[in-house]
Design a protein that fits this description.
Helices cover 34% and strands 17% of the residues. The protein has 441 residues and is α/β, with parallel strands linked by helices. β10, α10 and β11 form a beta-alpha-beta unit. Bound molecules: N~2~-(3-carboxypropanoyl)-L-arginine (SUG). N~2~-(3-carboxypropanoyl)-L-arginine binds next to loops.
Length: 441
């Protein structure tokens, strides 16, 4: 069995709208001019690197924007450009919302349980409803369609509907979910991390920043995925981590197989939780926790060190795919060097440049959805989204042909942008052999 990273291809409307309160980078870079072409190239380069390292890689296409279907549901009508003008008049944030390219962060696309963990031995997917923010919530319906298209064979795959879109069931997908195992083909422990309980109207406003994932949503995913309850853990994010800007647990925590690399303040009651994990693995695991003294929560969030991808290489070693920003921090580099020097499977580090995404709070690990598949399951999923040399070249040229190098909020009223995006995605659906996926919704 191997893990495939399904990375979100950055869409042609990538922009900085400051829509994600509690996400420090999104608020800091609000209203800056973005470079969609560079953003998409940085993402594609990262995919290329993983492929070259021998880590299987696949592509998730961007969503159609502007989202006129949403505007129509909200009662807007008339010509496309009129609808956009009307949205802007009511609230410029609504215009930015329907233009958001946030589906690039596929770590939030769904929660995925491998077949060796589920009772019916199919791979289970639950697209995240992301009800905390409208610009993210609008992704759920298309994500459901896309997952059904890519993982269509019910013999191997179960694609659930997103949880009902209620605040108490707020679900942000795999960014709050980690798989631990000795090997990918062995049943392991699935860790679900939540920020608040749900059914607690006041709780989401008690801290400085809102907690997104609810315990109720995590529990529902656990039950729907038919997991062995004795092999699941439900842990709470520490409020300090959320208030420092860890709006998802994957900002301060990453795991692969029997290795956890995290900030000591990521999880409430971590000592007890890590003891239970050690017990499950009979101590044959590596919990690398970094103290606040080594790296403050603030610096962890500024560098996104723990939003590195932790991947298994073909020779059995692990590599950390870290954001370039770590190179600019002595504290983060000291941690990385200590990890490499220590006795654990992490033997390599690669630094990737994804600053366009980072400025919206999306590091290397945010850009990918991990899916562990057997060779048969891999053969049963849609082959045309798996990255190859040929697909890489086609996507690179496609980006050059269709993407702008600058995008500001004022461009959202440019009718030409609507045509550009539609033309680009129409061509992409052919490259990725996705049929009429964009016109179905
Ligand atoms: O949901 N940013 C995303 C970043 C998601 C990162 N994902 C993980 N940590 N897995 C979010 O906060 C910013 C959009 C804007 O401001 O235009 C945004 O939505």
């Amino acid at each position: 069995m191997s893990e495939i990273n399904f990375d979100g291809l950055v869409g042609p409307t990538h922009n900085y709208a400051g829509l994600a309160y509690g996400n420090v980078a999104s608020i800091t870079h609000a209203k800056q001019i973005s470079n969609p072409r560079l953003a998409a190239k940085q993402g594609l380069q990262k995919m290329r690197l993983l492929m070259d390292l021998g880590v299987p890689q696949a592509v998730i296409p961007p969503q159609l924007r502007p989202n006129f279907a949403l505007l129509r549901e909200l009662g807007f009508s008339g010509k496309p450009e009129q609808m956009l003008q009307q949205a802007n008049k009511i609230n410029p944030a609504l215009l930015a919302t329907v233009y958001s390219a946030s589906s690039m962060w596929t770590a939030n696309m769904a929660t995925v349980s491998p077949s060796c963990d589920t009772q019916d031995q199919t791979v289970h997917f639950t697209p995240a409803n992301m009800t905390m923010n409208l610009h993210r919530a609008q992704e759920a319906a298309f994500n459901y369609k896309l997952l059904q298209r890519i993982f269509s064979d019910p013999k191997h795959f179960t694609v659930h509907q997103p949880l009902p879109a209620f605040r108490d069931l707020s679900d942000e997908g795999a960014a709050n979910h980690s798989l631990l195992c000795t090997d990918y083909n062995m049943p392991g422990v699935e860790i679900f991390v939540y920020g608040r309980h749900g059914l607690d109207a006041y709780r989401h406003v008690t801290g400085k920043y809102p907690a997104r994932q609810t315990q109720l949503a995590s529990t529902a995913n656990m039950l729907n995925h038919k997991l062995d309850q004795t092999k699941t853990m439900l842990l709470q994010q520490s409020p300090e981590a959320i208030d420092a800007g860890a709006f998802h647990n994957d900002v301060v925590f990453v795991a692969n197989k029997n290795v956890i690399f995290c900030h000591q303040q990521a999880i409430a009651g971590w000592d007890e939780a890590s003891a239970a994990i050690n017990k499950f693995f009979a101590n044959d695991c590596h919990i690398i926790e970094v103290s606040a003294k080594q790296l403050s929560l603030e610096e962890a969030i500024a560098t996104y060190l723990f939003n590195s991808q932790l991947v298994s290489l073909t020779n059995g070693d692990m590599a950390l795919i870290a954001p370039y920003e770590c190179k600019e921090s002595d504290a983060a580099m000291n941690v990385i060097n200590a990890v490499l020097a220590d006795k654990n499977p992490i033997k390599h580090v690669e630094f990737v440049q994804c600053r366009q995404s980072m400025h919206n709070g999306g590091g290397p690990a945010c850009l990918r959805l991990r899916v562990v598949l057997t060779p048969r399951q891999q053969a049963a999923c849609l082959q045309s989204v798996l990255l190859t040399d040929d697909l890489y070249k086609k996507l690179d040229q496609w980006i050059d042909k269709h993407y702008r190098e600058q995008l500001a909020a004022s461009d959202f009223l440019d009718p030409q942008l609507i045509v550009e995006v539609q033309t680009a995605l129409d061509e992409l659906s052919k490259i990725l052999q996705l049929g009429n996926i964009y016109s179905e919704l």
